[in-house]
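pls ignore typos typing on phone
Q9C + seq
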Amino acid sequence: MLTIYSEDHRLHHGAAELYRGRLVPCFEMPARAEQVLDRVKAAGLGAVVAPDPLDRAALARVHAEDYLAFLETAWDEWQALGETGDALPYAWPATGLRRDVPPEHIDGKLGFYSIDAAVPITAGTWRAITSSAACALTGARQIVEGAASAFALCRPPGHHAGARAMGGFCYLNNAAIAAQYLRDNGAGRVAILDVDYHHGNGTQSIFYDRGDVFFASLHGDPAVEYPFFLGHADERGEGDGLGANRNFPLPWGTSGADYLSALDAALADIAAFAPDMVVVSLGVDTFAEDPISHFKLHGPDFAEIGRRVAGLGRRTLFVMEGGYAVADIGANVAHVLTGFAG
Ligand code: Q9C
Ligand code: ZN
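k done
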């Protein structure tokens, strides 16, 4: 299995995120991707290659142009204020108190285009997020050209980013961009399986009214877990997408065995959808030792996830999402990928 990786991810290194009334050091850090790269190499999974040059039009198939322009220019606008630290939002447009009109001032734009304050924008953020998306697109190209599988070692992650919003360490929705690329290049039907600990609210919202992209997510129950406002079991899609969205909210403390039972149900739904190709949003923050999560998975559970996904018998692109137990995420990712490869 080919891994697609760019060291440009290092250009994004936020200092702090807002959490419970305090600015705390970012959990989403460059060492995460380095660790995954090391363990993927050690596992002998296959070659590591650089991404193709980015096709910006592929981003615009998923994200609004005004949002892309905001991301591209936000750092310069922030710096023009004389600020030297990271840009962070502090004011948000809530339901009933908003119009769909982007503000002129960068402080307003930061809130208008975000869902929380876990998304610092730094000098290198645009280059890092576009190289992350390029990794996903290059992996998708490999799949279209016939590869049985590929691993896009994306950083920053993507599944909390909506068509027009950043949040939860995510700016561009790499998995959604890859899935749309697959649709645009020969796949009639695509399924996205999201095994990150957090609900893939961005991915769900992007495809919610579409019947050609199935979205299934296993995650901490949003009643008690970030991202809080989407991810319930009764969110089944709308319009043409009715029935093409499936959520499996699970309680804090969920064991590997209970997780794998829910995974079987998600995989049965995906098999019934009969996708041509599959994208896996691969977060390993379900690990028992993850510092911000509350599931109880261990190494062998991750290998089993890979084996069961392989049981779908479809060409599969793995896209890196979350996982914050830095010393262990590489091994856990390698378990999934070697489990898949058999
Ligand atoms: N400081 C992904 O896993 N809230 N994003 C963290 C603890 C945001 C997670 C609270 C969690 C976002 C891609
Ligand atoms: Zn997560």
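The longest strand covers residues 213-220. Strands lie at 2-4, 16-19, 22-25, 48-49, 149-152, 190-194, 213-220, 245-250, 277-282, 315-320. more later
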